[in-house]
Amino acid sequence: MMGQSGADAAAIELLAVGEKHETTSDMKQVAIMILAVGLAPLTLEAQEALQPNNRFILTDPQPDTLSADLPTNNAEPHPISPQEMKEAKVTTWKDYVGIPGPSGWRVNVIEPDPQDHGPDGFNHHDWDADGDLDVFVNFEEGGYSRLYFNPGKVKVRELWTDFIEFPKHGKCEDSGIGDLDCDGDIDYVANGGHVYFNPGKGELRDPGKWIQMTLFENEARVPTISDLDGDSLNDLIVGARTWYKQPATGKHDATNWKRYELGKANWPMSCILSDIDGDGDNDILVQERKFQGTFYYVNPGRDKVTEPWPVNVIDPATGGMFMALGDVNGDGRLDLIKAAEMISIYLRTNDQGAPTYHKIEVAPPPQPASVKVKAKAKGVAILEMNGVPSYPEIVIIPEYEAQLWYLTLSSEGRSPENWTNTLMDMPGPESRKKMDNAFLVDLDGDGDQDIATTEENGGWGVIWFENPANN
After folding, report:
1. Residues 6 or more apart from 317 whose CB is under 8 A from it?
2. Which residues, other chains included, contact 173 with Cβ-Cβ below 8 Å and sequence gap of 6+?
3. Is the Cβ–Cβ distance between 95 and 88 less than 8 Å?
C-alpha cells in the first residue's frame, strides 16, 4: 500500500473526528472532499500546523547560493501569495535588510545563518592590510570559525562572500584576537582553547597555513589578550580565571605555555583590562552572570603576578549580561555600564585607590507594537550619537526580538530621571531572535562608529547596524 501524504492524513483525520455519514449521497460528498484535499496544496495554516515547532514554511537557501540572496527586482515569485503573507505576517531578514528607518539607521548582513550554526563572537582588524576592517567570527553551534574580508566601501552593504573557513574545532562562543607569537601579525583565539597563528599576509588566505595550537579542550569564555607580567609579550586570559604565559621561544608548542590561576569566575560575560585603582598596572574587571556579579582582580605587581590575584567586589548583584567601561558624564573618570533587567550605571566618584561608585538603575523603554516580548538588555556600548562628545550615549542591544535603544544624559546623571531612553528605529526588530554584545567598528570606512553583533535563530547571522551620521 502506498504511504499517506500529508493531505491524505489531514483528510482522514477530518473523518475520524467528524460525524458518521451513512447515506450514499453523504459518502459521495466525503469522497469528493478527500479527493479535493489530496490534490490541492495545503493552506498556509495547514502547512504551518505540520511544521516542527510551528516554524516558517519558507526555507533558506543553501550556503553556496547566499552570494546572490539579497532581494532584487528579478526575484522569483514568492511561494506564498502576497495576501497570505500579509495575513500570516511571515517575515525573514530579507524583508528588512538594508532598509533604513526614519533616523537613517539600517541593518546590513555580512552573512546570514540559514542553518542555525549560531555565530557568537565578533572581532575586527584589517588582516589583509587593504585599509578596510575585516571580521573574524566563530560559530557556536557549527563549531567552526571564519575570517571575512571586507569587500570595500562600494560593496560593504552586500553579503561578504570572500572568506576563509577553519576546520571544525568544536562548540565554542566568544573569541579574541591579538599577537600571541610576537611576529607583528594578529592571531585568533576561539574560546574552546584553540589558537590560530597568523602565517602573515602572503599566506593569509590559506587556512591550512594558519598554525593551530590547542591549549585545552573545553569552553573558557571571553579569551582576552594582554601582557600581564610586564615582559612585553602578550599573554592569554581565558574564562576570567586562568592565564597562559607566552613563552620566549617555541611559541607554537602548547607545552611551552605555562598556566597560572587568577581566581574563580563561573560565567564571565566581560573581561576588561584597565588600571582601575590607578597604581600603574592593569587590573582585570569581570562581569559575571550567575553567581559573583561585578568584581575585579587587583594586579598584585610583577613579583606576585603568577599567584592568585586578590579580588575586590564592586556589586554582588547577579543576573547582568555584558558590561562597558567609559566616561559617560564628562568628569574624566571611567564609569561602568551593565546590561541587566534594569540598566545599571555606575558613576565613579573617586580618582585613585579602590574605586567607589554611585549606582543608578534605569528601566528599559516601551517597545514598538510589533514587539511581543519584554525587552531584555544584553549588549552594551558607549557611543557618541547626539553631537555632544563629553556626554556620549549608552547603546543597548536587547537579547530577544526587540528594538535597540540608547540612553542620553541630562543634568548630572545621578538619578534615573536624568537619563532619557530613545528607541532606535531599524525595521523588523521582532525578526532578530537572539543577539549578542555591541561591538563598535567603522565597517564602511566613513569615519563614524557602526554597531556590529551576531544574531542566532532568526537567520540574520553576522550583522551590523550602519551609523548614518556621515552618510
Report:
1. 293, 294, 340, 344
2. 118, 120, 121, 138, 140, 191, 219, 221
3. no
Beta carbons of 10 and 42 less than 8 angstroms apart: yes
For residue 391, the SS3 value is coil
Could you give the residue ranges of the DSSP H alpha helices within 18-108?
24-39, 44-50, 82-88
Q: β-pairing, 439-441 with 323-326?
A: unpaired
Under 8 Å between Cβ of 439 and 395: no
Question: What are 157's three cell numbers?
Answer: 552593504
Backbone dihedral angles phi then psi of residue 341, each to the nearest 5 degrees: -55, -45
Question: Which candidate, 172, 55, 50, 163, places its Cα nearest to that of 110?
Answer: 163
* DSSP at 96: T
Residues 6+ apart with CB under 8 A from 127: 134, 136, 147, 149, 186, 198, 204
Q: Give the number of other Cβ atoms within 10 Å of residue 392's Cβ.
A: 21
d(CA 326, CA 332): 9
Distance CA 450, CA 444 (A): 8
C-alpha cell at 149: 574580508
Dist. CA 138–CA 117, nearest whole Å: 10
Tell me how far apart the alpha carbons of residues 427 and 106 are, in angstroms, rounded to a whole number. 8
Q: Which one-letter amino acid corresponds to residue 306?
A: T
Q: What is the DSSP letter of 200?
A: -
335-338 and 343-348 as β-strands: parallel, antiparallel, unpaired?
A: antiparallel
Comparison of pLDDT for 84 and 268, the residue scoring more = 268
* Residue 194, SS3 per DSSP: strand
Report d(CA 242, CA 260) in Å as an integer. 6
pTM to 2 decimals? 0.81
Summarised one tens digit per residue, pLDDT across range 353-408 is 999 999 999 999 999 999 999 999 999 999 999 888 889 999 999 999 999 999 99
| Amino acid identity at 10 | A
pLDDT of residue 46: 37
